[in-house]
Predict the structure.
Amino acid sequence: MLKKILYTTFLLSCVCALSAQEYRQSVFLQVDNDLYFGRDKYYSSGIIVGYSKSLGNDFIFNKRPDETLQLDLKAGHLIFTPGDIDATDTRFFDRPFAGWLFVEAGLSKASENSILRSSLEIGLTGNASFGEDIQVWYHRILGIEEKPSWQDQIPGELLANFKPSFIYSEVLNDMTFLDFVSNGSLGTKDIFAEQMFGITYGRRNQLRESSAFGMMGTSAKPEFFGFFRAGYRFVGHDTFLEGSPLNDHAKFTVDPKEHLFKIDAGAHFNIGKQLFSAAYHFNTKSSEREDAHYFLEIVYRIRF
């Protein structure tokens, strides 16, 4: 009996120590792809790596004692392709080929139930993005017979965007949260305004301690929750479809749809240093020639 009491006491002590621990830094890997659904078109793939750090002092944003301030640094590569990737006649394309090689720096301020975020993204399109090289190599490694032609891809440009975001989460009870997510983008890459509404159900910490919505999660308290969101995006410009707003160098372009409807759904789990999440993303067609599109996002983060 005494052994059981001592063992239980030891386990409770470990759990309390783990819960009291706070993390200040993290690294993550995000992989987006539509191959999980037997597709290979439109937003075909994305690989993003990043580093996050919780800041102790004011930096651009003023930080109160009950708030978390987080710096995010990212680098990534995205590939966009038409539905018929081995075609060479653009008359049969439903969108242009496009590659995007970018870096991004962002700052987030999180309180108990809201997050304010600002990011600056800079990157390259065209041959300098290595979109063709990476996709051809990737197909060869996987033994995919179709060889992407990359005919008349969106030409090389240096593009920059400012991306603000605001998230508010209303606590309905200990396990249920009502979420409002506002995203925007303004620059030479794309211009859009987006509003998402949704619900989160499960064990989730207060936003200033949580690893939801791209935060690293400073608290070691475990989280496990699922979410569903739906919303609308107004598109003012999309360089990956219509070329740069600064010139008309692109040989083949299509007009983007101004009105998109979106659905996001997924699950999120973290315990100790490790975090896993998977999300399904759906949007109505981005141009008149395209179909609706969907892909899976998988994220692994380790905190220290």
In short: The domain at 23-303 is CATH 2.40.128.140 (Lipocalin). The two ends are 37 Å apart (CA to CA). The first strand starts at residue 25 and ends at 33. Confidence is low (pLDDT under 50) at residues 2-20.
